[in-house]
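Justification of resources, computational component.

The compute hours requested in this renewal are based largely on the per-chain cost of generating structure records like the one below. Each record pairs the submitted sequence with a full structure-token output. That output is archived, and it is also reused by downstream analysis tasks.
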Amino acid sequence: MARTQSRPSLGYALVVGGACFFVLNAGVSRVVLRAGIDPALLTTFRTTGSALLFVLFAVVADRSALRLPRGRELALLLLLGVVGIASVQWTYNIAIDRIPVGMALLLEYLAPVLVVLWARFVQRQHVRRTMWLAVALTLVGLALVAQIASGLAFDGLGMLAGLAAAACLATYFLVGEQGVSEADPIRVVVWAFVFAAIAMNVVRPLWTSPDLDGSANLLGALDAYEVPLWLAIGWVVVLGTLTPFFMELSALQHLPATVVTMVATLEPVGAAALGWAWFGESLDALQVVGGLLVVAGIVLAQASRAVPPPAVPEVAG
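The structure output for this chain reads:
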């Protein structure tokens, strides 16, 4: 994507704004889940609604993006859609339904650590020695947050789902580095979401959805309020997916991809704050220290690559 008239201040504003929308989406997604929509069905709504809107955008902005992918590009986009988008969002939805939203995002954002380990041991790339410090900080931090010494503090399935989301998100980044990042970003996201939507409609079709005429309680500090269920689902699609995606994609016109990704690590911190303010979720002092260690490890892992990875539009969060 060409950068014209780069404005770093605007880039920072866009990526921080996108991170804020992703954080809010964690809370709204929990509202939808607690209203009776299961994680798989919510993922189907999110991927299908986003795919339709991305296709409509391509029709207006760039119809060449709708050209059917073939060969290696088709295989990469299938993997990107099924694993890097559908599976990320499905496992993430399971996690936020069972453990604090801050912890769920913290686990998902372990993806950069997994990517740098893959680069070092599988791709045999040179990485800086700071990688080992990043891994150590992350492991110690997770041990403190999860209170492993006294038994897991959180639901085991929720923790596993968060780790699975990290593995799927790492796959998303790695697939992007293997050639998808060279393609038009609109084309990438259109077809990735189309394939994600197809996959999720096989797993949990939209037509199996219950009646959406009901209401969803906003829970926690907003327990006195309710909104139409369809409106909450609409938020997840439009303001929880499309809006932050375009904000972070636009930020890449003004900032390097490494900077955009590092600033986006504000999301676990913001999610922890959201969980405290909205749902009354809190961590003790040792767990807070652990969370900060994990974030430090994630940032350090991002900086450990000798060659910065190419820009890949962030579509999962």
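Residues 129 and 304 are 7 Å apart (CA to CA). The mean pLDDT is 86.
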